[in-house]
Amino acid sequence: MREGIVSERSFSVWKLLGWMCLPIPYFIYQIVLRMREQKARETLQGKVVLITGASSGLGESLAHVFYMAGCKVVLSARRKDELERVRKDLLECYSRTPTHPPVVVPLDLTDVNGLPEKVTGILNIFGKIDILVNNGGISVRSTALATTIDVDIKVMLVNYFGSVALTKAILPHMIKRQEGRIVFVSSVQGKFAIPQRSAYAASKHALQAFGDSLRAEVDDQGVRVTMISPGYINTALSVNALTGSGASYGKMDATTAAGANPDDMAGEILKCILRDDKDVILAPVTPRIAHLLRYFCPPLYFWIMARRALKLAAEN
């Protein structure tokens, strides 16, 4: 009887030790991952990084992250005065850190034919572009019916054709050097669409498809493609969004206000690049579930979206 009790206790001890050891492989994996990230971070020193939409929001946060990593940051957007502000902030915030002075290159993503000239100007300064971060974009708050075709075209021009044109202007130089990285900051709405975002979601769906095709085509030429699909981020995206008529939306959505901190998101994006991630969703649980439902249980997803559309219509 006593032997049985002892054996049972011994079994319980070993069982407890087994459960305690389960997290060990996970922690080892995390340690190895961080060591790889740190080693990759060292390779960023002196890399030329072109960031679009760098005048505010996530683009501004990305500028800080890459600048602190020792990169030669090129700040691009339409508003030169805001780009100069970001440049000044970078120089003042890290005045004691050995870094490369940022360069301001204003550009308009809708001027797709003028983008190659902008790229040539940057190449004349640095001789190369190591990383292109396609972050610039606009959003819309309107139903498909209420959105004029001019707005559809403008959103597609900025979010899709602008990024594609800039990528195509830089790509030959990366292929010639057999190295480089193209980063697309898309959205979870490039994975699945929600009501009153038809123009925006369509542009991000297109970007997703372009990125997937490009990744395969340049895989053997030393160029890497990273697609980032964030959830809501607490920036002025909704404030700067367009209505269906093309007017300024001018309001901060509750979902946007409750979104991720842009500085935190920028840090996560840098980690994705260091890990050479191909396609990443950086969002809370709910958007991730919606993404899974769209592909594994479409009828339920369609029903949920229909209910959401009714709710939004009632609120408006």
Write the H/E string, N to C. HHEHEHEHEHEHEHHEHH
Shape: globular
How many helical stretches? 11
State the helical fraction: 55-70%
Layout of helices and strands:
Blueprint: H1 2-21, H2 23-42, E1 48-52, H3 57-68, E2 72-76, H4 80-93, E3 103-104, H5 115-126, E4 131-134, H6 149-177, E5 180-185, H7 198-218, E6 223-230, H8 254-257, H9 262-274, E7 279-282, H10 285-296, H11 298-315
Parallel strand pairs: 1-2, 1-4, 2-3, 4-5, 5-6, 6-7
Helix pairs in contact: 3-9, 6-7, 10-11
In short:
This protein has 316 residues and is of the alpha/beta class. It is 55% helix and 11% strand. The chain is built from 11 helices and 7 strands.
Structure report:
- Helix 4 (80-93) links the parallel strand 2 and strand 3 (103-104).
- The protein has eleven helices and seven strands.
- It is α/β, with parallel strands linked by helices and 316 residues long.
- It has a seven-stranded parallel beta sheet with strand order 3-2-1-4-5-6-7, sandwiched between helices.
- Helix 6 packs parallel to helix 7 (198-218) and helix 10 crosses helix 11 (298-315).
- The chain is globular and about 55 Å long.
